[in-house]
Amino acid sequence: MLSIRLQWGAVVAFGTVFIFASSLRAQILPEEAFESDSPMSQINFASDLRDISPTDWAYQALRDIITRYDCLAGYPDNTYRGNSSLTRYEFATAVNACWQRMERLIARAGIESIRSEDWKAIAQLRQQFNLEIALFRGRTDGLEARTQELEAILFSTTAKLTGEVIFAGSEVFGANNITNILRDRVDADTDATVQYRSRFNFDASFYGRDRLRTQLSASNAIPLFASGGDTGGTDAASLLYSNDGRLALDTSTVSENTNSVFLDLLSYRFPLGQNTMAHIFATGGSHFNYAETLNPYLDDRNGGKGAISRFGQRNPIYAIGGDGAGMGINHRFGNNFRVDLGYLANNANDSNAGLFEGNYSLLGQVVLGSPDSLQLGLTYVHNYNSANSFRFGGSGTATGSFSANLIPVALNANTERSDGVFDTPTVTNSYGLSLFYPFSDRMTISAWGGLTKATFIEFGEGDIWNYAIALAFPDLGKKGNLGALIFGAEPTLKGVRSQGNPVSLFDRDEVWHLEAFYRYQVSDRVALTPSIIWLPALNQNSSNDDAFIFSLQTHFEL
User: Fold this and answer.
1) Rounded CA gap, 228 and 13, in Å?
2) Which of 38-42, 306-310, 506-510 has the lowest average pLDDT?
3) Helical H runs in 84-204?
4) pLDDT tops 60 at residue 550
5) What is the dotted CATH code of the domain comprising 159-557?
6) How far apart are CA 405 and CA 55, in angstroms?
7) What gap in Å lies between CA 274 and CA 259, rounded to an integer?
8) What would the DSSP string read from start to end of 69-119?
């Protein structure tokens, strides 16, 4: 059974009538909340009211009714609000609450526990407001029935559905007569496209601070620099003219754009004490899913509310070893010092490799400072990959040039080797430095640099660099809008050595990346984002024709 307890109600003077002088609010509480060891041992809350004093005319009446029957209480901020208006429904609720309280006192302590004049007064008022009480009870019963109905049809009373749908109209200009993955000359100027990606999150919590996330995605997004397979070779990457400038919504390989629904991420996070959060990934996990990337306005984890490109969202070293299973830990030492640790394995579901015998990546990071002022992050990522499986990202989500992603066919073409020395397992150690600083509420700066030192087992080493600086302008034009400028170099293989001797590279220019976009918030859940990406050195070759990517994206948030 449920009883109704009033929160900061009006003054009640028991005599011939009740006098209510302020508005009432009702709160459903369990009946047991009214029980106590002694029915007459109630606390005098009237003395705690901040806007009433013992000299006020209503003070004694309020004190008497609370002390005797505990059927009226105050607002949570300890105010009385004696000048507030009162509806008949609110008054009827107060009368009914006091009536029920008196009935329970009589059942426990007998009729002598109630003053006769009080009982007579409440009975008269209850009869007078009987219609309002009946209507209120009918509404309450209706709400309870509706709640039970909703609980019966919900797949979970603790789950929440969120998501987004992105429509993108895009076109590439320029990119004529460029070198592709085999260093053959091709024309990568493509026609306009219309693509989409939908992503839905089913979030469930078992005790409030934890979260179980099941993320489902579907898309038809094909990389903009993609051919029908006439660029040579049987490797999937040979279907691409270039891997540079890939859009954040493009999270599939060339062949994975069939509109099929697939499991994008399955993860669970839960607290370990007050300052530690643990993350477990069954599939689809990347280091940026748990580690602080220090790019809060532009890193939307490849969603539609951040940077348009993958590169603009974060330092690419956070994507090394992505799309895997494993765990991450965040721990705070006070307000200005945070540590992130994580381990991911790409072949955890393979019984021949498992969690520890196949490809893996290990991240360690410290973050100093507060997001309200200056933040500085130092990041280290150690990675092992079998031949032709290292990427700055998971399957189909790489960032940077073909050579920087250590694709053997690209390395062979870039060095004019055909002896298969690059078709070997690799070990990489990546070092990152990140910075975030808010100049004001309307302008912030993010910057990062990353060095990846790769070891080709039994052959040699390579150095891969990336860096960027990004300016974000929150609420530009109106609240919810976002403007941004991003300039930097996507992952670029700058040098290769074998037994300490340099290996010649034909193409080693920085993969320059300049991006600008403006997200206009049409409504709370709809946004339009026009953008442009300028790529003057496709495939780390500055002699290639400049490429421009124009995109207009519509973002729907569920």
Assistant:
1) 86
2) 38-42
3) 88-109, 116-128, 130-153
4) yes
5) 2.40.160.10
6) 80
7) 42
8) H--B---TTS---TTS---HHHHHHHHHHHHHHHHHHHHHH-GGGS-HHHH
* Structure tokens given for 489: 């170099």
Rounded to 5 degrees, φ, ψ at 135 are: -65, -40
C-alpha–C-alpha distance, residues 492 and 558, integer Å = 37
Question: What is the 3-class SS of 418-473, one letter each residue?
Answer: CCCCCCCCEEEEEEEEEEEEEEECCEEEEEEEEEEEEEECCCEEEEEEEEEEEEEE
Distances from the Cα of 504 to the Cα of 28, 183, 355, 412, 461, angstroms? 77, 15, 37, 11, 13
The answer to whether 87 and 93 have CB atoms below 8 angstroms apart is: no
The answer to whether 171 and 192 are in contact (CB under 8 A) is yes
Residue 446: which residues within 8 A CB-CB, separation 6 or more?
Answer: 294, 295, 297, 298, 434, 435, 436, 469, 470, 472
Q: In Å, what is the CA distance from 529 to each residue of 3, 313, 351, 468, 520?
A: 52, 15, 44, 21, 6
* pLDDT value at 211 more than 60: yes
Check pLDDT > 80 for residue 204. yes
Residue recorded with tokens 């993958």: 310
pLDDT tens digit string along 425-464?
A: 999 999 999 999 999 999 999 999 999 999 999 899 999 9
* Cβ contacts of 210 within 8 Å, gap of 6 or more: 268, 269, 270, 271
Q: The dihedral of CA 114, 120, 121, 126: what is its sign?
A: positive
Q: What SS3 class is residue 313?
A: helix
- The residue count of the chain comes to 558
| Amino acid at site 26 | A
CB 413 within 8 A of CB 353: no
Give the integer Cα–Cα distance in Å for 496 and 454: 9
Task: Provide the token pair at 9.
Answer: 């109600």
Could you tell me the maximum CA-CA distance found in the chain, to the nearest angstrom?
A: 105
What is the spatial distance between Cα 244 and Cα 507, in angstroms, rounded to a whole number? 14
Q: Give ranges for CATH 2.40.160.10 in the chain.
A: 159-557
Give Cα 165 distance to the centre of its chain.
15
- Cα–Cα distance, 461 to 480 (Å, whole number): 46
**The pTM is what?**
0.73
- CA 421, CA 461: separation in Å to the nearest integer? 11
What are the backbone angles phi and psi of residue 425, rounded to the nearest 5°? -60, 155
Q: Residue 147 — φ and ψ, nearest 5°? A: -60, -45
